[in-house]
Amino acid sequence: MRKDKRAHWHVDQLTLAGQILGAFILESGDECALNAALDGLPIPLPGFGSSDCRRCAAHLRLWPKQAALPSDWENARKAAESSPA
Ligand SMILES: [Zn+2]
Fold it and tell me: Is the pLDDT reported for residue 16 higher than 60?
């Protein structure tokens, strides 16, 4: 999340250009399962963060401002945990 870094990963482009509001850590998380659990959210940039993934159109989702983040995140986390790896 540092601003004084060389951009290497796709997410670096976001952290350098945007304002970080927070972060979540999902222990033993599967980013593809989490992405699938969030499939109701739009993909703002196809391919973003998923260049090494054959299943997902992107590993970036747009979370609308009006979405209730804590409860939606909790539902997505539970769905990701119950999805097969
Ligand atoms: Zn994926």
Answer: yes
Distance 31 CA to ligand 1 centre (A): 6
Distance, CA of 15 to CA of 35 (rounded, Å)? 19
Residue 4's Cβ-side half-sphere holds a number of Cα atoms within 13 Å equal to: 0
Nearest to 33 by CA among 53, 12, 9, 62: 53
- Domain assignment present for 63: yes
First to last CA, the chain: 28
Asked whether residue 76 is assigned to any structural domain, the reply reads yes
> How far apart, in whole angstroms, are the C-alpha atoms of residue 49 and residue 58?
6
> Residue 84 and residue 63: Cα distance in Å, rounded?
24
What separation in Å is there between the alpha carbon of 18 and the centre of ligand 1? Answer: 23
Question: Is 0.70 surpassed by the pTM of this model?
Answer: no
